[in-house]
Amino acid sequence: MKSRWVRRGLLVVVPVVLVVALRLGWLSWLVADGGPVRKTLEGLSWVAALVAVGFSLFDLRRQRPEPVVSRSVHVGRALHLDGDRLPKVADVPLLALRVKRAVGTSDGQALPRYVPRDRDEDLEWAIACGGLVLLHGRAAAGKSRAAAEAVRRLRPGHDLLVPVDGPALRQIAESGLTDTVIWLDDLERFLVSGGLDVELLQRLAPSVCAVATIRDHELAAFRAEGAINRAAADLIASIPPSHLIAIDQRLTDTEQERAKTAQAGDPRIDRALAASEGFAEYLAAGTPMLERWSVGDDPLFYVGQALISAAVDCRRAGYAEAVPATTLAQLYRDYLPALWCERPDLPSIAEGLDWAARPVLGASSCLQPRADGTYLASDYLVDRTQDGGSPLGGSPVPDRTWDALFSLSSDRGVTAIGTAAYDAGRFDVAERCFRRASEAGDEAAVRLVAFPISKLGRYQEVVDIFWNGARSGHQGIMLGASVALSLAGRFDDLSDLARRAITDGDVEATLATVVTLADVDRSADLYHLGLFAIVNGEQGTITAVTWAAGEKLDSEQLNGLAHHAIETREASVVFATYHGLRNSANVDKEAVDAALLPWFAGQEDSGEISDLP
């Protein structure tokens, strides 16, 4: 009780004493220069200043604009990310790069030691140079393993980009990439509309290295005469020979010696060396996997076989992604033997998928399951089907499969289905796919529509497509229509288009036709178009025709054009003819000069023209 009264008294007395002391100046020494209070306040002011500067810097940092390249661009577009960053090459396991598991490999067991290939040195030189390096060969030849090992040796600390598809690659690349390895296993998956093309590759080349693999069947399709995926064909054609690395199915004698050295007690390598099918094919369990798909005689086998066949045909039909189980369930009955279609004792779809997805001898499985309930057919089985050595034989893809993939694909992705349908001779399916994609704004598909229409014999529609392209100024449409007519052998139609374009003074339309005629060496047609242009054309169309024709003409035809131009006595016509012929790639320039320069000299001497070209 007493202490409480003391505290109350102090609360009253102390403030009164302080007020009196301040009024009388008794405490002025505390705040004088050098006094303890002044020193304390000055110290606190420095602390406050430092805190203020810190908060200002923090605020400036918070307001600083984000870098142009945002790491978030990788999320959903690239695989194996470290958070939202690209991983390093050395940090991504080989199996994650789609290197095939080996026979007898348990979950905890490593892949067999790598057996160096004879092409490794060429491969390393190509990777060191940068650009696109493409390894090709049959399925299960060891392409992915050779590529992955080379990249790990040369660029382990570089960022690794594994894009989910072609459009994702473009979106990431357009945000900027430096010191990056781009991994493109099964390159054909990325050569789609809005994906990788020559322009994008050239933009990437200075700062990145793209390492890709492709099966020989796919490579041959892009190189084939009349291939309609021109963007992909042009990209393949742009790869220098030093960057095309062939990986053989069988080991050379030198490689076999290295394999024996690498064996080091691993019985898998010893057995692979003795295998008749080939070293890498044995390790990937290729032959046993094909046998699982081909040999059996019970209900589970037939359901599993049909599901595998449906998935293989989806890949044959241009669908490169894993297929939903629901789609396979819709399709598999078309692949059952007729006697089994209505059997009441068939196992369920789930049981069939489980059987088809079991690893064969601890290696690959016929159907590779994904976490999202989709399945991808082994590329080895696709390869053997394209060779004609599978349960599918040479049978065509059924209508129901084309229809299902048309519905399953996106507006952009359906172009790949159309391309596969065109290559398979299903021009009706191809037209439907290209029309859908073009209506959705796919520039590549707009150019392709004319091809299946031409194959279906509707040539007047192709001509109409050409002029629609000319009216809209769309060079790709005109070129596509002219190439479609060329593939159909409709050279008279092409020449008619060229004459009308020359008469109209349409240089772009003229170029679309004469370039196509030049590509197929129609020198006689080009010569007569040159004569027509000299008489009826404007300067631009004359130059366009003579430029395209120049390298295809023999000396007699070349002199004929030159003489015809001189006979017009029109300086603009002679100039246009001279420039067109002179700028042709492989024309005899000395012959052109000999044919036309004397006329220029004579005109200059007479004062009719003042400048030589």
What do these coordinates show?
With 613 residues, the chain is mainly α. It is 57% helix and 6% strand. The chain has 31 helices and 8 strands. The protein has a 5-stranded parallel sheet, sandwiched between helices. Strands 6-8-7 form a 3-stranded antiparallel sheet. A hairpin with a 4-residue loop joins strand 7 (367-369) and strand 8. The protein is globular.
Indicate the proportion of strand residues: 5-15%
Please tell me the overall pLDDT. Answer: 87
3D shape: globular
Q: Strand order of the main beta sheet, please?
A: 2-3-4-1-5
| Residue windows where pLDDT falls under 50 for at least 5 positions | 1-7, 10-23, 29-33, 40-69
The share of residues in helices is: 55-70%
Instruction: Please give the number of β-strands.
Output: 8
Oligomer: single chain
Radius of gyration, CA atoms, in whole angstroms: 36 Å
Distance between the termini: 119 Å
Major β-sheet profile: 5 strands, parallel
Count of helical stretches: 31
- Category by helix and strand content: mainly alpha
Properties at a glance:
mainly alpha, 8 strands, 613 residues, five-stranded parallel sheet
